[in-house]
Design a protein that fits this description.
The complex is a heterodimer of chains A (297) and B (537). Chain A has 297 residues and is mainly alpha-helical. Chain A is built from 11 helices and 2 strands. Chain B has 537 residues and is of the alpha/beta class. The chains are: A mainly alpha (297), B alpha/beta (537). Chains A and B meet through helix 6 and helix 7 of A and helix 14 and helix 15 of B.
Chain lengths: 297, 537
């Protein structure tokens, strides 16, 4: 039974990490579908959000700092689109590659701003969930992991509901399929893209806040999350929101198991993830939920 | 003895037969014009001869050589040289000099090896000197040709095309980058590039595309000079029928991958089958309601839409030349013209999908912001582009929900309206739009556009690719929409006879200019205008 508990805990913690990878992957996919851009700066903006909350915590309570950070991150996403990305994406003959490369530049800039604000030392971050162990149907699980899973699934659920059942979601679907056709039906694409940036940045910051108590705060806190969530996107299929979440959880679980198997260990865990990526791409080149390009008429 | 013989050429593109048993000849020193509507397979023929495509059957013989056994390099060596429809080289290398660009036409990697060139050996220098001499000879020809051309008119409408201080002498600017040249001169430079390799046969793919009318005339003159000076023969694909008829010694007409007529320009322009292809066949049966048509344009009605001096460009190619027209409510106005005459560009300009460079569009007495489709939709203007821009992966219902998103109409009202005109859609609400047949997709696209009761409805070739019976009923529905919704419909249509029959007013476009307008009755009695529309003289 002890072995079961041990492996269950490994899987459970893996799912918790995987939910965060999945949430980041979801934001990559959502923005890619709407704007055809990969926002490589996503995790660094999220780090900046955590840094902001850390600074706010000196002046106010946990929950008010959190709400303020979330609101500020939405506004920041909108601002990013309005001040920078809009001018790149709305050139009729601009290429999406150059826009994506701009986000790599933003990656560096935001990383430096985080360094400037809090230095390179790691700092602790308070957890709203506490660090005790809870008994779930007789199996011990960490409260922290449970909190992460529940909160990120709630966030994912909210995003799903908005995209599936509201007019806003329908407009995003229209843009994702054909932006020109959407404009011809009167959908104001530029405004919607600003909202898309706001939502994805906000969701990214939310994910970073969830993981910050475990990961500790530093400018480099999300570097590994960046690569893991990109792998999750590719495994799930570039344009599939469901694939992003499932891909994230698969990556999280496999990674955590690999790190704790003695003959692999934390040194070689990344190798296992890449082997997994290669395997998926060999069997399904467009990812698990990827769609064939030819279907887009 | 003909120089180029094409025999029974056939080619498939993914199961679709693009060329079927095409045979044609280009005699020595003759210019052969290849004409036909879009998708007839004209460029495909040229691509087969220049060995870009590999035909599934047929022979191509040039000067006794079997062209199909050669590589595209070797095709050039036996004296076949071509130009391309779009000036791709310019976009790739805009900073290349004029002289280098022309030299590119004779560049032979076998004679210009890396090492001798890098070490500046005598052989490499000699090779380059010869190339330069040839290039200058060609440029000198274009200088001499200038005296036969119409001088550029310094008109307001052509600021971009004129370049600085009128047409340049290419020899004076041989060291300058090609991007300083106006569009018309780039087209000429492309001819120079094709001529430098001393070809016996030129393959010209739409050499006049994007040129203003007087430049098209100039191009025709230059081509005739080239024929005289270089003794070269040519196979010319061109949509501007007028020019093609003037410069060609023989005409070959293609439609849907087959040759349907051959002969001297005069014979071909009288061929009923050819006229039908350009004007649309059949459907002459119903006599139109003359009394209704002759009086529709009463001058006391305010136009719902007015265009004032619209100029539009794609890059540096001008698509619309100072177009001014008025659209009145409760009328169907048809826009007719050959391919490339600017019909679709007109609708794109009005809808805001493309932004005109100059001019004004007035909707309901108030100016419409240019190049801003969202604003146009909000003001009650709906556009159904060619090729049915629906959302293929969404369901029919989702597509229709998108149709009412930016209107004041509720989904229920909107759906009622769509089902009134297109009851068949009701049974497909849950289907993915991509799975619908072409006809249903077109109904869905028009349905989306009429849900919000638009004041102006722009339809770009709604009948394209539909079965004949479907086209009849679609046109009936369009009539009904006009009558019930009291909106103004602007229709771009290939089938000119049908369009004239069902329209209250007709606009005829040629080379981006509005050349004639009138009611159907006026135009039907006017053979001259119809000929003008065809480009026949």
């Amino acid at each position: 039974m002890d072995t079961f508990n041990y492996y269950f805990a490994l899987v459970f913690d893996g799912v918790a990490y995987g939910c965060i990878y999945g949430l980041f992957a979801l934001t990559f996919v959502a923005l890619f579908r709407a704007n055809k851009i990969f926002n490589f700066a996503q995790t660094e903006v999220a780090t900046l959000g955590v840094v902001l909350m850390l600074l706010l915590l000196k002046h106010m309570s946990f929950w008010s700092a959190m709400i303020l950070t979330i609101l500020a991150s939405f506004a920041f996403g909108v601002l990013l689109h309005v001040t920078i990305m809009r001018f790149l994406t709305e050139r009729r003959r601009g290429s999406h590659l150059s826009e994506t490369i701009v986000t790599i530049g933003l990656f560096v800039i935001f990383n430096n701003i985080s360094s400037y604000l809090i230095g390179d030392e790691t700092q602790p971050f308070p957890s709203p969930f506490g660090s005790d162990v809870l008994s779930l149907f007789g199996v011990p699980v960490s409260k922290q992991s449970l909190g992460i899973i529940v909160a990120s699934l709630l966030m994912t659920g909210c995003i799903f509901l908005v995209f599936r059942f509201t007019k806003l979601g329908l407009k995003f679907e229209a843009i994702a399929e054909n932006a020109d056709a959407a404009r011809l039906r009167g959908i104001r694409v530029s405004n919607l893209l600003a909202v898309a940036w706001g939502i994805t940045i906000m969701a990214g910051v939310f994910a970073a806040l969830l993981i910050a108590p475990i990961q500790y705060v530093s400018p480099a806190m999300l570097i590994s999350f960046f690569s893991y969530s990109l792998i999750a996107v590719v495994i799930g299929g570039l344009e599939s929101p469901l694939g992003a979440i499932v891909g994230g959880i698969i990556v999280g679980v496999v990674d955590n198991l690999a790190a704790n198997v003695s003959f692999i260990g934390s040194e070689l865990r990344f190798l296992v993830i890449f082997a997994l990526l290669l395997l998926v791409l060999l069997v399904r080149p467009r990812g698990l939920w990827g769609r064939a390009e030819a279907r887009r008429v | 003895m003909s120089e180029l013989k094409v025999r029974s050429l056939s080619i498939d593109f993914g199961g679709v037969r693009a060329l079927n048993d095409v045979s044609l000849d280009v005699p020595k020193g003759a210019f052969v014009g290849l004409m036909g509507p879009n998708g007839a397979g004209k460029t495909t023929v040229i691509n087969c001869i220049s060995r870009i495509y590999k035909p599934v059957a047929g022979q191509i013989e040039f000067g006794g050589e079997n062209v199909l056994s050669l590589s595209s390099d070797q095709v050039k060596q036996i004296g076949i040289s071509r130009t391309f429809q779009d000036l791709n080289f310019y976009n790739l290398m805009p900073s290349m000099s004029v002289l280098d660009y022309v030299m590119l036409g004779q560049f032979d990697p076998k004679k210009n090896r890396f090492l001798p060139n890098g070490l500046q050996l005598r052989s490499a220098k000699n090779y380059e000197r010869d190339l330069k001499r040839n290039a200058r000879k060609i440029l000198d020809f274009f200088r001499q040709a200038r005296e036969f051309l119409e001088p550029p008119q310094a008109e307001r409408n052509y600021p971009i095309l004129m370049g600085r201080g009128g047409a340049p002498d290419l020899l004076d600017v041989e060291r300058s980058p090609i991007q300083i040249l106006s569009f018309a001169w780039r087209r000429r430079l492309d001819l120079a590039r094709a001529l430098i390799s001393n070809p016996k046969l030129l393959l010209l793919d739409e050499p006049a595309q994007g040129l203003p009318p007087f430049e098209i005339d100039n191009l025709g003159k230059i081509l005739k000079l080239i024929q005289k000076e270089f003794g070269v023969s040519a196979l010319i694909v061109e949509h501007n029928v007028d020019t093609l008829m003037k410069i060609s010694d023989h005409i070959v007409v293609m439609s849907s991958g087959e040759v349907i007529a051959k002969g001297l320009p005069d014979e071909v322009s009288k061929n009923q089958q050819v006229v039908d292809i350009y004007l649309g066949s059949g459907s002459t049966s119903k006599p139109g309601n003359e009394s209704r048509k002759s009086n529709v344009r009463s001058r006391d009605v305010q136009p719902v839409l007015e265009l004032k001096n619209i100029d539009m460009f794609y890059g540096s190619a001008q698509a619309l030349f100072s177009v001014s027209l008025k659209i009145f409510p409760n009328e169907i106005s048809s826009v007719l013209g050959t391919n490339g005459s600017g019909k679709s560009s007109l609708l794109k300009a009005i809808s805001g999908l493309e932004k005109p460079a100059f001019g004004e569009i007035v909707l309901d007495g108030e100016p419409l912001p240019l190049g801003w489709p969202e604003a146009a939709v909000a003001r009650g203007l709906q556009y159904v582009p060619q090729g049915r821009m629906i959302f293929p992966e969404l369901t029919v219902l989702e597509n229709l929900r998108i149709g009412v998103l930016s209107t004041k109409v509720s989904l229920k009202e909107g759906l009622e309206k769509v089902f009134h005109y297109f009851p068949t859609l009701k049974t497909h609400l849950k289907s993915q739009a991509a799975s619908l047949s072409g006809g249903l997709q077109q109904m869905l696209a028009i349905g989306q556009a009429i849900m919000g009761s638009p004041e102006v409805l722009l339809l770009d070739e709604p009948s394209l690719g539909l079965a004949p019976q479907l086209i009849e009923s679609l046109f009936e529905v369009i009539q009904n929409i006009k009558n019930d919704e009291k909106c103004a419909i602007v229709l771009v249509e290939q089938n000119a006879k049908k369009a004239i029959e069902m329209s209250d007013y007709i606009f005829i476009f040629n080379s981006g200019m509005l050349i004639a307008e009138g009611t159907g009755a006026q135009l039907r009695g006017d053979d001259e205008t119809l000929k003008k529309y065809l480009g026949f003289h």
